């Protein structure tokens, strides 16, 4: 590179590192061949990402073994450079996708890499291995606390065939700076290990726990691991949000938590207790049988239980036939593919957004007892056997004079032309389609003729703006 033309290379190292951080990874790697300066900048860049797929490809065993050796040498040299020069590593991401057999051979190298990284004031660690499954109890990478126990570590993300051994139950194991903990498809030797880790993270703010397993050495080979049955979180004063999926029983006692996302295993009855989370602002429940969790009047007392709740989302939940939702602070409500429900009454004077998604033929009755003058209603459903008379009755529900409603529909098959249809007129109804040009519809008789011209191959969205 012509030094007279190269003004960027003379910039301070921190600025050059900032430039690298804004480039796609492939482009950042290319900078290492520009000059010796840029090569050094790249190799001291404090955000280090290593992925075996970039170096190891399908080939003969001999060639593959050589590729693995080259990959291991590369990773070791990259980390040794930081260690020997006393440089800090802000983030280390290691992604491995090798077969179980090959992974087991390189686990000692992974230990060394993580230890070197943790000694370089590591702030964020992301370790991703192939996904662990119940029917595939392949040997996992055993994570020892001494490998990753770093006072500087504030974010830990682990995914895949990673095993927490019983050393994590040692009272001396502490993560004094950890603020974010994310664990997906990992294996615990003891179900109490996660609670012990959490209790030794005084600054923890966000916890993700998705489809984690517990080891049972007494079980048959195909039953030696099973999904975690329960988790309890209490005494975490700084906890702001949790994302828990696949755990059957959950107890949360965190006075300052603001956001809870819980996805249950739909095949098992689940229980969840978070009544003491009075500061809650956003709640999402997924794959729940509501009858196992709440009584039919639970939604009537949202204001007293959660006075600051602003967002409620229920996804793929089995509901009661009649649901009454009442909350003075709720601003956003989402119901997506919630079965059984036949009647929904909503008493939410400050609600600004209501979204309802459903795939089926029988549409529920929905009414607003109180609502904001700025409320927007968006409905999206996929009717396998569309019935225009149902559509007419459904739309008629959104007729209060003091709020605007937008209705979005997704209809797959064509609609029978002889279908009986209830007639309702609106002053302003607009139909838009991703397949056809926009159409202004005066009333639903016109709407019927527009819909009747569709074929089963049309995948269209219809939007109504009602006044």
Automatic annotation (TrEMBL):
Record Pfam families: F-box, LRR_At5g56370
Domain F-box as annotated: residue spans: 5-41
PROSITE patterns, A to Z: FBOX (PS50181)
SMART domains: FBOX
InterPro entries: At1g61320/At1g61330-like, F-box-like_dom_sf, F-box_AtFBL13-like, F-box_dom, LRR_dom_sf, LRR_FXL15/At3g58940/PEG3-like
CDD domains attached to this UniProt entry: F-box_AtFBL13-like
Name of the featured protein: F-box domain-containing protein
Lineage: Eukaryota, Viridiplantae, Streptophyta, Embryophyta, Tracheophyta
């Amino acid at each position: 590179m012509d030094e007279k033309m190269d003004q960027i290379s003379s910039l301070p190292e921190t600025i050059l590192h900032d430039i690298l951080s804004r480039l796609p990874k492939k482009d950042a790697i290319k900078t290492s061949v520009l000059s010796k300066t840029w090569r050094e900048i790249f190799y001291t860049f404090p955000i280090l990402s290593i992925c075996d797929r970039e170096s190891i490809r399908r080939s003969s065993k001999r060639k593959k073994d050589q590729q693995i050796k080259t990959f291991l040498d590369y990773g070791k040299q990259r980390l040794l450079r930081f260690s020997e020069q006393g440089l800090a590593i802000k983030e280390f991401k290691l992604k491995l996708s090798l077969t179980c057999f090959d992974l087991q051979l390189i686990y000692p190298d992974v230990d060394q890499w993580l230890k070197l990284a943790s000694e370089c004031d590591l702030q964020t660690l992301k370790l991703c291995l192939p996904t662990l499954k119940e029917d595939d109890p392949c040997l996992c990478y055993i994570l020892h606390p001494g490998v990753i126990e770093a006072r500087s570590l504030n974010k830990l993300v682990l995914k895949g065939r990673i095993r927490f051994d019983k050393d994590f139950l040692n009272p001396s194991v502490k993560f004094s700076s950890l603020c974010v903990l994310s664990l997906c498809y990992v294996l615990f030797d003891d179900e109490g290990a996660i609670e012990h880790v959490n209790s030794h993270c005084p600054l923890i703010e966000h916890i993700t726990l998705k489809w984690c397993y517990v080891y049972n050495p007494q079980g048959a080979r195909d039953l030696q691991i099973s999904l975690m049955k329960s988790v309890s979180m209490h005494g975490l004063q700084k906890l702001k949000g949790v994302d828990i999926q696949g755990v059957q029983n959950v107890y949360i006692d965190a006075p300052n938590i603001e956001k809870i996302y819980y996805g249950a295993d739909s095949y098992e009855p689940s229980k969840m207790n978070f009544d003491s989370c009075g500061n809650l602002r956003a709640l999402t429940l997924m794959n729940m049988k509501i009858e196992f969790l709440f009584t039919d009047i639970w939604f009537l007392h949202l204001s007293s239980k959660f006075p600051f709740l602003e967002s409620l989302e229920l996804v793929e939940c089995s509901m009661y036939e009649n649901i009454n939702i009442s909350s003075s602070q709720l601003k956003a409500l989402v119901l997506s593919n919630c079965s059984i429900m036949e009647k929904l009454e909503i008493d939410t004077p400050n609600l600004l957004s209501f979204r309802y998604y459903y795939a089926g033929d029988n549409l529920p009755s929905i009414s607003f007892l109180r609502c904001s003058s700025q409320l927007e209603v968006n409905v999206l459903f996929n009717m396998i056997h569309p019935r225009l008379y149902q559509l007419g009755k459904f739309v008629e529900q959104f007729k209060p004079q003091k709020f605007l409603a937008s209705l979005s529909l997704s209809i797959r098959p064509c609609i029978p032309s002889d279908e009986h249809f209830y007639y309702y007129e609106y002053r302003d109804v607009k139909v838009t389609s991703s397949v056809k040009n926009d159409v202004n519809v005066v009333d639903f008789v016109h709407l019927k003729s527009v819909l009747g011209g569709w074929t089963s191959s049309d995948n269209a969205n219809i939007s109504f703006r009602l006044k």
